[in-house]
User: Fold these one by one.
Assistant:
Number 1:
Amino acid sequence: MLSRDEQRLLAAIERRLRDDDPDLADRLAWGPRTPTRWRRRAGPLLAVLSVLWILLGLVVAEGIVLLGGVALLGLAFWMVGGPRRNRARGS
């Protein structure tokens, strides 16, 4: 928890940033926008590819191939959903 002096100083810095560059202040306050069109389209395709990769890993009984498919599946979910940030704004 910040002290009152630190809170006052932070509020002054935020006001100056908003005055100097309001677009940057909005981006910093709200985080990234929704996933881009490319990520929304490529994510499901990558998910299908990763499921096929996992099946290949099961068929050839190679753990490293299976692990690669799981990693690709995680990447696909990240591409569609995007990284999560705490978007709460202070008052």
Note: Confidence is low (pLDDT under 50) at residues 86-91.
Number 2:
Amino acid sequence: MQIAQSVIILLLTTECILAGKHGQRSRKKSKSKVPDKHGTDQSKQIEDMFRAHSYELSIRPKVEGQITKVGLGVMIESITDVSEKNMDFTLTLCLHETWVDPRLRFSSGGKGDSIVLPSRLIDKIWVPDIYIVGSKNSFIHKTTVNNVVLRLYSNGTIYYSVKITSTVACQMNLYNFPLDLESCSLTFQSLGYNNKEVVMEWVGGKDINDLFFDPGLVTSMPKFRLIHHQFLASNQSDSASYNAENKSSLQVMFELKRYPLSFFLQSYFPAMSMVTLAGLGMWIDPRSVPARVALGVTSVLTIATIITGMKSSLPKVSYLTAMDIYLWVCFLFVFATVLQFCALNYFMKRQQNRKARIHRTSAKTSFESWRKKICCFSDDPAALDIFFRLGYFITFLLFNVAYWVYYVILTYHDV
């Protein structure tokens, strides 16, 4: 009896196991028969290719031989800051790249059919390793999503766009500051491929309306005005690499003209005022020693403060800028009024001492009369004061004429 029960239990258990396996097989078959309603036929072909591991990310696409041609287009939204202190400029741009990858061709109903790949598939596709030469800091915008788009066409053509904000170094020539023209460049280059593997070329228009999203925002910047731009293509030698390869490089040159009005109001006009004020102080009675000394010292300290304030907003360069020359000449003019009053006060004291002495009645020789003409300032301090007043303003006027003619007219096109 017990043996019969054991046999029955064993048969029931075996039947249950077989029924379970049959149910699993039927469920798998039913799942495989249900069509996937998500995505298009084109996206399914791309995803099936990645699932089959038939696409190698590390291998660049090869079309027409061994060279991969990458078209590059730039749309600059804004140039937000051009800093002469940090020697850089910050801009926001949309970088458009295009190339052909035959491995990504797919069949479609129309010749021009295309799809926009999701971000999870962009990371699995070969993308040119283009970087901005001289970039100090860059980031990709993420409002409201990652600003990266890749559109794939049925013939394998790829359009890749990314929005970037970058701070790029710009080596400025400040000899003529603030009456200068500065030339800054935006250079794109491949990081790992030489010009025998990847060649870049400009695509699209080269007019100002093609380069800038809104030309009005760029031509009316706070400190600079864009007066010229130029597209260049060249091969740059990467001497830092182990084999000194030549790499394809694309460059946009910007020529920027500085607005000098703010600097004129902040530095030039106060310096002129101090020089004029110090010169007018020579009309004060020389016997009013405290008034003339206070005016001269105040003018010197004011010019020194202006020089210190301007140097703090500029990089530490080893040469004198145009503004340095002007401010230091103004400093010398103001300081000369203090020295003039010291000399005038000395001659006045000598004149007073001379009058207190007994005048000599002996005839003077011709040598004495000649010496008197030379030393007329010591005999008549008022003549020294009048001579210095006229020479002071005439010299300062001539200096201004020579300064502005040289820096505004003769060096207008120097960068």
Note: Residues 51-259 form a domain with the Acetylcholine Binding Protein; Chain: A, fold (CATH 2.70.170.10).
Number 3:
Amino acid sequence: MADPERQPRAKVCMLTTVHMPFDGRIFHKEAKSLAKAGYDVVLIARHDKAETVDGVRVAPLPEPRGRFHRMTSVTWRLYRLAVREDADVYHFHDPELMIVGLLLKARGKKVIWDVHEHYPNSIMDKFWISQGLRRCVSKSFDLFERAVVRFFDLVIYTTPLVGARYQTLKVACARIENYPIVELSDTFERNPQKQIIYLGAMSRTRGLVEVIEAFALVAARHPDWRLVLVGVARPASFEDELKALAKKRGIEKNVTFVPWVPYEEKERLTSAASIGVITYLPYSNNTSCLPNKLFDYMLVGMPVVASNFPLYREVVKPSRCGLIVDPSRPEEIAEAITYLIEHPDEARAMGECGLRAVRERYNWEGQSVQLCRMYEVLLGTTGGQQRVEDPADCRGPAELHEDGAAVLRVDADRRI
């Protein structure tokens, strides 16, 4: 009988042209979890050098000169690198890589499509697509994806609303949420200052204009408080617009803009804040997805002010971790922030409830169990054709069954 430790490891190749190489979901959560479980993991992404970090080998792609260059030349280079890797499983993360996924599938490889958003909805909010063309582009993408998604071995999705599309299409699918890594909460000491924080990409659809307007009302009563906005503006000119608005409202000295920071650093920033704001506006993609920043706030024991969308409400209300507001009304956002400032004991209790909810349910440690188990089912192996370093890393119920099509069902609520 062959020694299981001498058997070759299954090789997993993660693919992205859109995301940074050390993206939270792709690298820190999925790739590192698979590497820890014993898989040979390579990540092909935009980077300036080839290196191995935390057990994941990074194969670099050049920085694109623009969106068209990324979707053509850089994508073609990614495909050639992917073929050279000759992996057992290819796990891609960008909709523009569906063609690459089809080409790899034609080579007999197992292919996973990791869906981060409800893309037909998100296209309707893309500022770089002419508003008159968005509906046509969205419909075209929807038709194209419906035609090709059945060729992939598995679709991973987040939130039930996103997953409903793929369940309707009767394709193999599994839900893996983008919950935070609990161990990061021990990295930085909690030292809250008089700061309100927003984490994430900054765009008009994410309600930042309303947040500035709300903070102007808050600062009128509490001038010693600050608003910290962390992230990259899309488009870049939007940051100038926000700065101009802050200056117009006389609060420019109380508003700080911080550019993109590495994944590990965001916890340091949130640990220094007292209130987290996640008041996206009711655009279709926003209402169908749960922002991971909501859980990042909860991870450090910070109360949240969140949009009154059903998905957000399903987390915030049962967890008792913050306040729900109409994101289109700055005065309502300001009222919620002011309430938390003026009721510190209640705010502290909300933060503690949020942290407890993350530790018990909304954590990546639980999702990594499902990811590993999903790979086991897909490959028909245990631990990627070798022993698992920690058997607990890959336990959890999963089954493939016929329901008009094969559907991978993973108990996403089960935790270690």
Note: Residues 267 and 414 are 25 Å apart (CA to CA).
Number 4:
Amino acid sequence: MASVQDVSPLDRLNREFIEAVREIMYLAIKIDSPYDRVKVMHWVRRLREQDDTKLRAAQIRNEYAQYLRIMLSGETLYFCAPFKKEPPEVLAPLPEALTNMMSEKCPDLPKTGKECEYTITFVVLKAI
């Protein structure tokens, strides 16, 4: 039997994801609204489609799974961003996705991500 020390970080993340999905499914069957249950299933399906062979992709997938699990375990079901919408094909890191969704509501907030890094770099270089 393998000890805890022998388990790779990727295996640990994959096991953590399986446990989170089990709990999400248990919580999802208690949702009254069929529409909301379907929404949860869409997100679980998208999370399961993510690459589980790369460490960073597994970390991002687990961030979303844990956030969804926490949301479903509350007394009242209320879908927050990013779960209000259909899941995107490619998942951005959760903090980046949440920041970008907040910046859509508050235009004064900066966006994040590679595209924005390019814009900021261009503006800084142009200023120099």
Note: The CA atoms of residues 22 and 69 lie 10 Å apart.
